[in-house]
Design a protein that fits this description.
Layout lengths: L6 E2 L5 E5 L3 H7 L4 H21 L4 E8 L7 H16 L3 H5 L2 E6 L7 H14 L5 E9 L1 H18 L9 H5 L12 E4 L18 E4 L9 H12 L2 E2 L5
Parallel strand pairs: 2-3, 2-6, 3-5, 4-5, 6-7
Antiparallel strand pairs: 1-8
The chain binds farnesyl diphosphate.
Amino acid sequence: MTDTKKQKAKTPEHVAIIMDGNGRWATKRGLPRSMGHRKGAEVVEKITKAAKELGIKFLTLYAFSTENWKRPDEEVSTLMGLLRDYLKKDLEEIQKNNVRIRFIGEMNMLDKDIVESIKRIEANTAKNDAMTLCIAISYGSRQEILAAVKKTVALVKRGDISENEIDEKTFSDMLYTNDMPDPDLVIRTSGEQRISNYLLWQIAYAEFSFTDVHWPDFDENKLKEIIENYASRERRYGKA
Ligand code: FPP
């Protein structure tokens, strides 16, 4: 690789976060895990605002993975309840902040009322352009990639595209994230250093930041510190 490929990173255009540690945060305080998730949902709103103020254009949050369906029923209901509350909230604040909201994941696994609310909020915020908040819900990257492979095969079978036309761009267009740039930076809270089936195709050239802070304690200052650290890095690929 030549030095010309090295570029100084600036504010990341797209930040993807794995919001981990809600359970440990609650347990440490002798509270039920649901309290950790509740506090975590409050942090979602604070961090969305802070990201917009920092000039981040796309923020993707891992709110519920396909694996999370295996958690105890009570915990799944708590998380779905928090999502319902979030979706029912007055849109006024989101509209005032000019934030577009979109969702990625296996929507057919969700209750009908949640899917309807998701469609409504996506439609109502579609024209907002200060920042896109993407919420990954019932999301699994391997499943997303397999679905994209199946869509591609169907297009080839129908003769809409030829096998030779399949490239990184046409394949990216088959993913849930087809209208977003790839993440520049992935943040995981709570000390674990793994990717957990998150945006595997999209993070090919991303930078990583792992922090010991549990998600309910994550705040604007921590986000700012991570973004400043990112800005000082030299990226070899990807955007400046
Ligand atoms: C991981 O912590 C976190 C989750 C599985 C859920 C994240 C959800 C929220 C922050 C709230 C809901 C979001 C919205 C958009 C309303 P964990 O429970 O795995 O923590 P642990 O590893 O300490 O047990």
